[in-house]
Amino acid sequence: MFTTETKIRVRYAETDQMGYVYYGRFADYYEVGRTEMIRNLSLSYKQFEDMGIMMPVLEMKIRYFKAARYDDLLTIKTSLEKLPIARIRFVCVIQNEAGEKLNEGEVTLVFTDSNTRKPTRAPDILIKALQPFF
Amino acid sequence: MFTTETKIRVRYAETDQMGYVYYGRFADYYEVGRTEMIRNLSLSYKQFEDMGIMMPVLEMKIRYFKAARYDDLLTIKTSLEKLPIARIRFVCVIQNEAGEKLNEGEVTLVFTDSNTRKPTRAPDILIKALQPFF
Amino acid sequence: MFTTETKIRVRYAETDQMGYVYYGRFADYYEVGRTEMIRNLSLSYKQFEDMGIMMPVLEMKIRYFKAARYDDLLTIKTSLEKLPIARIRFVCVIQNEAGEKLNEGEVTLVFTDSNTRKPTRAPDILIKALQPFF
Amino acid sequence: MFTTETKIRVRYAETDQMGYVYYGRFADYYEVGRTEMIRNLSLSYKQFEDMGIMMPVLEMKIRYFKAARYDDLLTIKTSLEKLPIARIRFVCVIQNEAGEKLNEGEVTLVFTDSNTRKPTRAPDILIKALQPFF
Q1: Which helix (H) or strand (E) segment is A110 a member of?
Q2: Is the pTM of this model over 0.95?
Q3: Which of A45, C14, D13, D128 is the most buried (most CB within 10 A)?
Q4: φ, ψ at B24 (rounded to 5°)
Q5: Could you give the CA distance from residue C120 to residue C127 in angstroms, rounded to a whole number?
């Protein structure tokens, strides 16, 4: 398993008139978690795109327990539970400063050739970087 | 069962650098579907808020089949498969103009008292308006 | 002068915890106005992009008079006051259902070659379509 | 004059199909700059809201020089050039890691009583905290 933690501060633009972070904005936060996980491997998603690999999302699932609010400093825990092959599944947990779990979710992406727009395999550099953790 | 259809046109702001609608934006589209369903019952979500009822999201799940693109005219089909009690579960399907299913999902919301922020029951006016369809 | 009107319904996702539409979201609305103006000329911004022309924004200015709220049905009035050459300047006014002016602004975009990313001229098909109105 | 610097990393969700950060998203970034400036005074915008003061935006103006891209680490420089009375005017400059100015703008907000929704004066605690810098 490989896990990364990132901090994010809730922006005013992300709240809605209930006074909470809008439920759809967590998709953006989860993506920040994925980006930072890949950076922690000394790689970048940008690099994958430059290699001609895109990663559209196949499935997303979020369970909400508690609301996030403006200016909250959130912790995004992002984990990979197994090595990716054609797909990669990120497990995300968001906590507030009190350590309470606000929501958790999974996002599955599929490695795609940006020219043919067809599925492909996880790039070797990603597999190599992840192997020590599995 | 009660079903509503709404049309939505993809905005430039909703695309990302893959050239697709960003995966998280469909949460916003699904909400448009819910709003229009409630309007079709001659009710409004605003009205619920004025009655002191909020509806935070408990769970969201989306499966993505095909991308949506800038300026696509999408159809959002929103269905209720059973009468709500304390929770309400909307089933959403998004199609493009060719009738292809782009994604489908479920969003479960919980009726909440906006003062106590505790769960409550679906408002009577909603139940009454839905009953003929079940 | 050439003017177009479009209707837009405020989404929950676009509100913030003040209970108003977030001030930055009007940039998105103004873009909807521009898109619909081009469609009214039987052209599309997509078409320009396919021709290798991008239109990044050079300047935006908005003056806010009154707030927009969830579920408001807004009218976006978009005008061109002169024929574009290298730049195009859209003037936007947003009104609510009572006809009150909520905000007004200008957005100036520059025609850009998407390969060289250098400034270019407005496409001929756009000039031709606009000429009868000036 | 009082100036604050904050860093922000561009998220995938903020890009559009031009491959740039969508022009409207800088309104969100500028707000992050304002929030961090107030935090640097050991105050918070949340605190103002709790005191019954809201700060809707009166005017926004942005001039764009160069695009921001996914994963860029941006610097937001936020300045107050004079002490606020009934309004507060933030001047913002966004730079990339190479120190290039990407865009600059001004945002003017008006102190508003959240009950009466009428203009009011800048809270004393804000004036006191700013006075040493002017």
Answers
A1: strand A101-110
A2: yes
A3: C14
A4: -75, -20
A5: 14
User: What class, spelled out in words, does domain A2-133 have in CATH?
Assistant: alpha beta
Q: What are phi and psi of B73, to 5 degrees?
A: -100, 105
Cβ–Cβ under 8 Å, residues C1 and C79: yes
- Asked if C31 and B46 come within 8 Å (Cβ–Cβ), the reply is no
Catalogue the E-assigned strands of chain C: 2-9, 53-54, 57-64, 73-80, 87-95, 101-110, 112-113
The Cα–Cα gap between A126 and A45 comes to 10
Q: What residue type is D75 in one-letter code?
A: T
Q: Classify burial at B89, counting beta carbons within 10 Å of its beta carbon; exposed 0-12, middle 13-18, buried 19 or more.
A: middle
Q: What is the CA radius of gyration of chain A?
A: 16
Burial of B97 per CB tally in 10 Å (0-12, 13-18, 19+) = exposed
Chain D hits for A27, Cβ within 8 Å = 13
Q: What is the ipTM of this complex?
A: 0.95
**Residue-wise over B51-68: b if at least 16 C-beta within 10 A, else e?**
eebbbbbbbbbbebeebb
Residue A19 touches partner C, C-beta closer than 8 Å: yes
d(CA D87, CA D125): 15
Min Cα separation D87/chain B (Å): 30
Kindly list the partner chains of chain C, i.e. chains with 3 or more CB atom pairs below 8 Å: A, B, D
- Residues D50-70 have pLDDT tens digits of 999 999 999 999 999 999 999
Q: Where are the domains of chain A?
A: 2-133
- Token pair 């696509």 is at which residue? B72
